[in-house]
Amino acid sequence: MGHTWTMADRPPDGRPAPEDRLSDADRERAVELLQRHTSDGRLTLDEFSERVGTVYAARSGAEIEPVFADLPRSVEPVSAAVATTGERALEPRRRRVSRWVVAIMSGAKRTGRWRPGNHVAVVAVMGGCHLDLRQAEITGPELTITAVAIMGGIRIDVPEGIEVELTGLPIMGGKDLKLADVPAIPGTPVVRIRAFPVMGGVEVRSRGPNSHKPFVEHLAQGIDQLMQEKLQRQQQRIGRRQQHWEQHVARAHRHAGRAVERAREEWQRALEQVGMPDPVVVAPRPPKPPWPPPDPSAPVPGAAPAQGPASAPSAASADGAAPPVAAPTATPGGPTPPAQAQQTVPAEDGDVPTAPDGTVTILFSDICGSTAMNERLGDLLAHEVLRLHSDIVRSQVAAHGGYEVKSQGDGVMVAFAGASRALRCAVGIQRAVRDHCVKHPEQEFAVHVGLHSGETIRERDDFLGRTVILASRITAAASADEVLVSSLLKELTDGTGEFSFGPVREVSLKGISQPQRVFPVEWEETVAAW
Questions:
Q1: How far apart are CA 1 and CA 175, in angstroms?
Q2: How far is CA 119 from the centre of its chain?
Q3: Taking a C-beta distance cutoff of 8 angstroms, is the pair 426, 501 a contact?
Q4: Helix (H, G, I), strand (E, B) or coil at 364
Q5: 459 three-state secondary structure
Q6: 411-416 vs 403-408, strand pairing mode
Q7: 101-110 b/e with 16+ CB inside 10 Å = b?
């Protein structure tokens, strides 16, 4: 007799409509029909569990019909066919039954859709076996698995809601059963596992249909763990390096402190041996010289006009300096002339000396071999020599009416309104340096001086242009203890007769395309008439 699951399975006089509610007997008949389909291999355990849950949750016949939508409506048991025909009915074609799973020093697994027998033997000898029953086609109400693991491992996955019994005797091994905390599904087969691990393990786990963990996920977890360990080791290395660096810095500070103490002691001993140098008396720097010079013929405000030959204008000196103006004489019984009438009116702040025709004489004074001197004398004594050179230059500049443009370490740049004044200042610098070195041979140093006259570009308190560049290059070409001037400056000062020059030299200066004619000044033979 065929059996079809419809609502007609109910008594004819009580057939409900699809909208009628189901009874417990209706649900039991639906579960029994699902069991038959599972036994025939049409449903797996996962599918059976899912559909049984839908059946027990259904309230009307319309809700239960989708469960059997893809299954045949008529199921005829084999026993009925044998009773009517006397012969064994042809069974539908089924998958091959697996009764043995063996892994010897290797691996074996049964996953996906497969058909186990009522009894399955699993043997793992120094290997591993994996049985996944979630998609297995179990034909009977009970499945028995005998698991023997000798120095190997066996893992069995069962669907959630399936009743599992784990028995057996572990010998120097272990067995483990972990099932999800979900209610058992009625009508599902019982899985009985007898485990005999010998120095091995048998593990049983329940997993849902979507609980597969692919290889990529396991790999990601392993990589994450490795990266965390690597990061931890790297942080430890950074901590050790930071500690070593702090110790190194502390040692460097200690060595630097001891080096400073030794340098201070050596400086004190050097001062005790050579004695303290005589202080260089430097005249106070006068205010910037007034320019342009006052006209001698112009009357001084507040003073009586001069009479006689004294009022005649006199020629300017060769170096651009104005002749002195006679002081006015107070008349008997008259008021005393004011002090400002006896002095030249000072120039405004920011004025720099220039000749009436706009030319300027630039002087550079530079210490020869300052680097070697610093190596020879040490930082402290070398700095003292630099300060001494600056004081000597400033005292001569003040005495000859020059204008200090700038001072850069071992060199000083000075501007003069007249060529003779600049040359006198250069000779004075060389003589002052010579006199100091004679008195203090332990502080011996040499300077070279270069001069050139010409038009310049004024940028605030600085001078720019080709004239400044030529003066600087001539200074670099001068030898130690030498004053070297350009041919133009020699022509400007030849008329005074107070300077002696050596033979002419042609030199190639850096950055200048044409060779330049220069003359050394014989400053030791120059008449000190000023």
A1: 47
A2: 68
A3: no
A4: strand
A5: strand
A6: antiparallel
A7: bebeeeebeb
Given strand 359-367, what is the order of strands in its sheet? 403-408, 411-416, 359-367, 447-455, 482-486, 516-521, 505-507
Query: 259 is written with which tokens?
Result: 């080096």
User: Which residues make up the CATH 3.30.70.1230 domain(s) of the chain?
Assistant: 351-521
The mean-pLDDT minimum among 1-5, 158-162, 404-408, 517-521 falls in 1-5
Provide CB contacts within 8 A for 135, sequence distance 6+.
Answer: 44, 45, 46, 111, 112, 113, 114
Q: How far apart are CA 487 and CA 478, in angstroms?
A: 14
Cβ burial of 13 (10 Å; 0-12, 13-18, 19+) is: exposed
Q: Tens of pLDDT along 369-413? A: 888 888 888 888 888 888 999 999 999 999 998 989 988 878 899
For residue 50, give the amino acid letter: E
Using DSSP, state whether 380 is helix, strand or coil: helix
* Residue carrying structure tokens 């989708």: 66
In this predicted structure, the answer to whether residue 121 has a pLDDT above a threshold of 80 is yes
Residues 6 or more apart whose Cβ sits within 8 Å of residue 158: 45, 133, 134, 164, 179, 191, 204, 205, 206, 207
Q: Are 335 and 374 in contact (CB under 8 A)?
A: no
Q: Residue 399 in 3-state DSSP?
A: helix
DSSP-assigned letters across all residues of 266-318: HHHHHHHHH-PPPPPP-PPPPPPPPSSPPPTTSPPTTSPPP-GGGGS--PPPT
Q: Give dist(CA 119, CA 194) in Å, integer.
A: 11
CA-CA distance, 470 to 195, in Å (whole number)? 106
Strands 447-455 and 482-486: parallel
Residue 11 has pLDDT above 80, yes or no: no
Higher-confidence position of 62 and 179: 179
Residue 414: CB partners within 8 Å, gap ≥ 6?
A: 362, 363, 364, 365, 393, 397, 402, 403, 404, 405, 422, 425
* DSSP code for 453: E
Q: How many CB atoms lie within 10 A of CB 405?
A: 18
The answer, as to whether pTM is greater than 0.90, is no
CB 471 within 8 A of CB 450: yes
Structure tokens at 26: 């209706």
What distance, in Å, lies between the first and last C-alpha atoms of the chain? 150
Compute the mean pLDDT over every residue in the chain, rounded to the nearest whole number. 76
Strand partners, 455: 359
- pLDDT over 90 (residue 496): no
Query: Which own/partner contact pairs does 66-69 have at CB distance under 8 Å and 24+ positions apart?
Result: 67/30, 67/34, 68/5, 68/30, 68/33
Please state which CATH class domain 351-521 belongs to: alpha beta
| Single-letter amino acid, residue 526 | T
Q: Which residues contact 87 (CB under 8 A, 6 or more apart)?
A: none
Mean of the pLDDT values across residues 58-64? 78
CA distance linking residue 502 with residue 518, whole number of Å:
10
Give percent above pLDDT 90 in the chain: 28
SS3 per residue for 58-85: CCEHHHHHHHHCCCCCECCCHHHHHHHH
